[in-house]
Design brief:
The protein has about 210 residues and is mostly helical. Helix 2 packs antiparallel against helix 3. The longest helix is centred in the middle third of the chain and has 26 residues, at about 110-135. The protein has helices at about 5-25, 40-50, 55-65, 65-75, 85-100, 110-135, 145-155, 165-185, 190, 195-200. About 70% of the residues lie in helices and about 0% in strands. It contains ten helices and no strands.
Length: about 210
């Protein structure tokens, strides 16, 4: 891959650009709910940034965009972290680990499959966390403390709100869009298949 920026500059661009984009999108979630660039930054960033710290790009964007929430949560509950922060953070670290895993022998099939898999993992983890929160006395009852309540959380959600599956659809579409967009910017040859074509051209012909 040909880089116009050093790895450090590229990492800063991803983190700062992803933070501003996340803040902008968060103010328009009523238009297209469930869209965020953080998953793509965690997944693709870990593929192209140095392995020593590239896996931190996505979680860093998430934490920076949630500083106000963390501060408010600390003032109200006495802790800087809650399930609403720890669960997504764990998913973003998982996405980064998956990006590092497939980076050396990546294919478009693996990238698309990894993106959809990360979206599904985030969806299940977030909805399960919401169901679990309803089991504690700090939160009002919403889902029944049964497997039926867990199924409701991961399918239709609570009455009066958009069905949960809408967020899965939007999340998968949004994550895949940002993944392909980052690949288009960072490694256009890979996305368009030029690197594979060049490798076949350069390979010696059998005698």
């Amino acid at each position: 891959m040909k880089r116009e920026h050093s790895p450090v500059h590229l990492g800063l661009i991803l983190i700062l650009g992803g933070t501003f984009l996340s803040l902008f999108i968060s103010h328009h979630q009523d238009v297209i709910p469930g869209i965020s660039p953080v998953m793509a930054i965690a997944f693709v960033g870990a593929m192209y940034l140095p392995r020593r710290w590239g896996w931190l790009a996505g979680p860093a964007v998430f934490l920076i965009t949630n500083l106000a929430y963390l501060h408010r949560n600390y003032l109200t509950t006495g802790t800087m972290f809650s399930w609403g922060v720890l669960v997504p953070l764990a998913v973003y670290f998982t996405a980064a680990g998956l990006g590092m895993l497939i980076s050396r022998r990546k294919s478009l099939f693996k990238v698309i499959g990894g993106s959809l898999g990360c979206s599904l993992l985030f969806y299940v983890a977030a909805n399960t966390s919401a169901w679990w929160s309803c089991l504690t006395p700090q939160f009002p009852a919403g889902y029944a403390p049964t497997l039926a309540g867990l199924w409701q959380a991961n399918t239709v959600g609570l009455p009066g709100y958009a069905p949960s599956w809408v967020f899965l659809r939007n999340g998968m579409a949004g994550d895949l869009f940002f993944v392909l967009l980052l690949l288009l910017v960072l490694d256009r040859d890979f996305l368009l298949g030029r690197d594979r074509a060049q490798a076949k051209t350069a390979a010696p012909r059998p005698v």
